[in-house]
Amino acid sequence: MRNYATQMDAAKRGMITPEMKAVAAKEFRTEEEIRALVAEGRVAICANKLHTCIDPNGVGSMLRTKINVNLGVSRDCKDYDVEMQKVMTAVHMGAEAIMDLSSHGNTQPFRRKLTAECPAMIGTVPVYDSVIHYQRDLAELTAKDFIDVVRLHAEDGVDFVTLHCGITRKTIDQIKKHKRKMNIVSRGGSLVFAWMCMTGNENPFYEYFDEILDICREYDVTISLGDACRPGCLADASDVCQIEELVRLGELTRRAWARDVQVMVEGPGHMPMDQIEANMKLQQTICMGAPFYVLGPLVTDIAPGYDHITSAIGGAIAAASGAAFLCYVTPAEHLALPNVEDVKQGIIASRIAAHAADIAKKVPHARDIDDQMADARKAFDWEKQWECSIDPETARSIRDSRAPEHDDSCSMCGKFCAVRSMNKALNGEYIDIL
Fold it and tell me: Is the same domain home to 275 and 161?
């Protein structure tokens, strides 16, 4: 029986929870270091007390950069079995979090299946589910309806919820005044914006934030403060709407921490490379080091079909500059619901970005596997190379499909291989080329 309300509550009281112990072991940190970081809000351990099969992970800029995978059914793609296949693929490939963004049908059984069977952190966006759950159009929903769905998701064992708390009636005037090129591209943010416009009411997730904190404290749910005004194109990056919302998210972070509720803060979006580092530092200052959760950022707008690459470029810069959590982007971004292969490509791109950033910010033991790969390449130890690879199946299949004449080279270099020549030269051996 837990004798603490949340991970942050325990940490502030000097208690080390089983989840903190698990995170410390994974991160090569002491348990006390992790406890102190959780107490400060600089690390979040998203672990609903009802998600009993979770394999806990910590999210924080000083820890390994974590990866989130978005999944879920839509009106055009309704197969939950396919989505579950994507879940298992994502977990197998090392994703630490799954967000169920389902927007069609009876979503609760799939959500409950995730929290009953999946060891990854499970996140949702309750505002999506509100229309589906009540089967009423947006304008017919009340503030209480939205809050009740937050509770429903908490009761279902969800570890973190994205809530677009930072936009208010003031944002409506800002969007109209500043004439953004892409307006609001956040799906949840646009729904909240539309509801405010149609009803004339304040954002319920902002107005009733204290009630939401009560729910999150009861179930130990982490709030991921959604960035409704994240830039959806390079032209809107770092504009008044984005920064003003970030300031409000900083205020809400303080309020959540005062109630021992853990927080992550979401960030851009689409952004030129030269603005990313400054944005990360600004968030760290305004939100007092709360873990930053970014979508990309995508560093160019002209690569549909390749946005997993544009996202990985921005993600590597963001994580090296302080972001803690990367939301993957697939080749299908802006085009379609991703299939299983798209999910795989998105995860690989994000893992490369995260790992590169971890090396740059000197996360303990992050580079060990790279050094092992270098040793394996020098020794032409192909099996060890597959073992060190992010995607060993693809690496092995490429070599097998274009096998060289001799095993101590590849089919590009053959006997001109620099590694082969240097090994022989340093061993005093004859180097045969022809």
Answer: yes
